[in-house]
Structure formats: structure tokens, C-alpha cells
Design goal:
This protein has six helices and five strands. The protein is an alpha/beta fold. A five-stranded parallel beta sheet has the order 2-1-3-4-5. Helix 3 crosses helix 4 (about 85-100). The chain is globular.
């Protein structure tokens, strides 16, 4: 209340009331060290505070996977380099493993950033609704990289980008 005032808190609680008890899962690549982790450390408890059953799961992967997804991340922001066929296979492999290890059944699964975007393909039955949340500027992506990731988005109910200016060309 000291940040938004009593009126702001009351409005948030009123808006959240129809969602009481809904199960919401956030999926991200890391538990610390990045913007998504900083957001989720506060957002998940706030969601719980207003009555949602909110949780957060972190994906697993070996160094080779995270090295490939770092290149993926940069490529989505315009780096002309992209993943090799072997790295794309690795990307799919770890998304499949993480999907099979996904715990629980959810009303809403929010997948943060590109690393776990492929999980929906192997775990669609785990969530009634799936949203991909893109936190990076993809306005001028490497088009080959974007085309590869774009194939996953058709399975999602929605995609959220931080700013309209961050939307990819298509």
C-alpha cells in the first residue's frame, strides 16, 4: 500500500476476485541473475496474496543447452549468427525433457522468454491455457531464428511482448 496506495490495492484485489483459486504456473530459465527472475520473485507472492494458486518452475539444462540459448537470445535481438542444426536439436531435446518433468496441472502456464518456448509441444495437457511472455526486443530478429521459434507460437493461446515496438515484423 505504501507504493500504490490503499485504492490501488483494493482495485487489484477486486480485479483478482473472479480468479480466486486459479492455478497459474510461471516457467523460466533461471532463478536468479536476470530480469525475469527479478519480476517473478515479487510477482508470484503478489499473485498468491490476491488469492491465485501461483507457482514458479525453473527449467533444467546442461551448459551446452544454455550456451545455445544465449546465442538464440542474441539472434532474436538481431545477431546474424544462429544456432546450428545440432544446437536446434539440443534445444528441442531439453524442451522435451523439461516438458516431461513439468509438475502439476494448471489453468494457465506462462512461459517466459525463448529458452522454454518448446515445452508446450510436449506438455499441452498440463495447462488449460498457455501464454508465451517475451521480455526481449525482437523487432529486428535474425529471420531464420525467428522462423524456427515462430512454429511454436501457433500452439499458444497468446503471446505478450513488453512493448509494441518489440514485436517481430510478422
Amino acid at each position: 500500500t505504501h507504493l500504490v496506495g490503499r485504492g490501488g490495492v483494493d482495485e487489484i484485489r477486486e480485479l483478482a476476485e473472479p480468479l480466486q483459486g486459479r492455478k497459474v504456473l510461471h516457467v523460466s530459465a533461471t532463478a536468479f541473475g536476470g530480469g525475469v527472475a527479478e519480476i517473478l520473485y515479487t510477482l508470484v507472492p503478489l499473485m498468491r496474496d490476491v488469492g491465485l494458486d501461483a507457482s514458479w518452475q525453473i527449467i533444467m539444462g546442461r551448459e551446452e543447452f544454455f550456451n545455445a540459448t544465449k546465442l538464440l537470445h542474441n539472434s532474436l535481438q538481431g545477431d546474424p549468427n544462429t544456432l546450428s542444426d545440432e544446437q536446434w536439436e539440443l534445444f528441442d531435446h531439453y524442451n522435451e525433457i523439461n516438458a516431461k518433468n513439468l509438475k502439476g496441472d494448471w489453468d494457465l502456464v506462462i512461459v517466459h522468454d525463448p529458452q522454454p518456448i518448446g515445452m508446450h509441444h510436449w506438455a499441452a495437457e498440463r495447462g488449460k491455457h498457455w501464454v508465451w511472455r517475451c521480455h526481449i526486443d525482437t523487432s529486428e530478429p535474425n529471420l531464420g531464428t525467428w522462423a524456427f521459434l515462430r512454429r511454436f507460437l501457433g500452439d499458444y493461446d497468446a503471446a505478450i511482448f513488453t512493448l509494441d515496438e518489440f514485436l517481430p515484423p510478422d
